[in-house]
Write a structure and sequence with these properties.
By secondary structure, the protein is α+β, with helices and mostly antiparallel strands. The protein has 3 domains: 86 residues, no CATH class; 206 residues, atp-gated p2x4 ion channel fold (Sandwich), CATH 2.60.490; 50 residues, no CATH class. The chain contains 8 helices and 19 strands. The longest helix is centred in the N-terminal third of the chain and has 25 residues. The relative contact order is 0.17.
């Protein structure tokens, strides 16, 4: 048995198997087969081809860069700063950022500070005191402006006061203004230039119109009918997020600008256009929330103050409220891959074969007709003959 088994296994390895086609005259199985074909064909045409476009090859490895430049000037006249002209050097802080830009719209200035001792602000809870022992010297005020000197300063006969601190004096005491200092920033513009490249298809494009007209960028404004003008008015950008510029300018805000490139190379390159989405990212729905808005502090130092001959070091401290915009880009490029890949259409024949040879009453009959074993021929009168095998055989149910 061992030798016979090994011999049979060896011979089976050299067998060649080929398909035999049997036409089964069974209306139920035939109807099932056609329904499966129609269902699969409908799925392929409607969902795979029309909706998902799975016949296309997609490149999502987008290489991109973005450049931003803000332009605009305005004039202010305040008691702290006097008459002043504001340009991009003053209100764009910092001058350059990675995919972001800042525009200062509101300002609280504490001018001509110097390192000295003075009373801490009454708005700092950790600075409140009743006696000198409440102000241990050398200990910083939590969330305050300096280091305690050891004295508790009280106004007149008041029982409660604030700790004396060594800091930049006088400390900031003014509250946030209700009117934006740079309200005219609504008409400032920002230039957003975006380069993209899809390395898989070696396809590159930019969001700036390809023109030789040198006055184009000086006169155009972005809009639905002019998508290849990269000049955006700040007031319009805020309005596209559903917000009011004047309200945002008071306490600041954060806006996300998303540039989306979703292109199909089966169409002309002129139809590969950028799409812009503008969203406000900070908590604008809770106006009284401590998390709404956006602001930061900025200081500048000088060796001598205005109208003074000499001082060790003077400091101007500014609380700045601004618009921050974050730039984002997304991209997907697709191209037909029918020529490079063969789409195999599943016809449902495998499932129907299972029903035909295992689950119906005459399954043995169909099984015998579908699978036929052909052995090597035998000699008759010195000639080798082989039993013929029909390529197509009709079987009546």
């Amino acid at each position: 048995m061992g030798q016979a088994g090994c011999k049979g296994l060896y011979q089976s390895l050299l067998d060649y198997k080929t398909e035999k086609y049997v036409i089964a005259k069974n209306k139920k199985v035939g109807l099932l087969y056609r329904l499966l074909q129609v269902s699969i064909l409908t799925y392929l045409v409607v969902w795979v081809f029309l909706v998902k476009k799975c016949y296309q090859d997609t490149d999502t490895s987008l290489q991109s860069s973005i450049i931003t430049k803000v332009k605009g000037v305005t004039f202010t006249n305040t008691s702290e700063l006097g008459e002043r002209l504001w340009d991009v050097v003053d209100y764009v802080v910092p001058p350059q950022g990675e995919n972001v830009f800042f525009v200062v719209t509101n300002l609280v200035v504490t001018p001509n500070q110097r390192q000295d001792t003075c009373a801490e602000s009454e708005r700092i809870p950790d600075a409140l005191c009743h006696e000198d022992s409440d102000c241990p010297p050398g200990k910083p005020v939590v969330a305050g402006n300096g280091v305690r000197s050891g004295r508790c300063l009280r106004a007149g006969s008041a029982q409660k006061g604030t700790c004396e601190i060594f800091a930049w004096c006088p400390v900031e005491t003014k509250s946030r203004p209700v009117k934006p200092l740079l309200g005219e920033a609504e008409d400032f513009t920002v230039y957003i230039k975006n380069f993209i490249r899809f390395p898989k298809f070696n396809f590159s494009k930019t969001n700036v119109l390809d023109t030789r007209d040198k006055t184009f960028l000086k006169s155009c404004k972005f809009g639905p009918k002019n998508p290849y003008c990269p000049i955006f008015r700040l007031g319009s950008v805020v309005s596209w997020t559903g917000s009011n510029f004047r309200e945002m300018a008071v306490q600041g805000g954060v806006i996300g600008i998303q540039i989306e490139w979703d292109c199909d190379l089966d169409r002309p390159p002129s139809e590969c256009n950028p799409r812009y989405y503008f969203n406000r990212l900070d908590n604008r729905f809770s106006e009284n929330s401590i998390s709404s808005g956006y602001n930061f502090r900025r200081g500048s130092s000088a060796s001598s103050p205005p109208s003074s001959t000499w001082a060790p070091e003077w400091h101007s401290w500014a609380w700045a409220c601004c618009r921050r915009s974050n730039g984002m880009w997304l991209g997907a490029l697709s191209k037909s891959r029918i020529l490079s890949r063969t789409l195999t259409l599943v016809q449902g024949s495998f499932f129907c074969d299972l029903v035909l040879i295992y689950f119906i009453k005459k399954s043995n009959f169909y099984r015998d007709k579908k699978y036929e074993e052909v052995r090597s021929g035998h000699q008759e009168n010195g000639k080798v003959t082989v039993e013929p095998l029909q390529n197509l055989q009709a079987v009546e149910a």
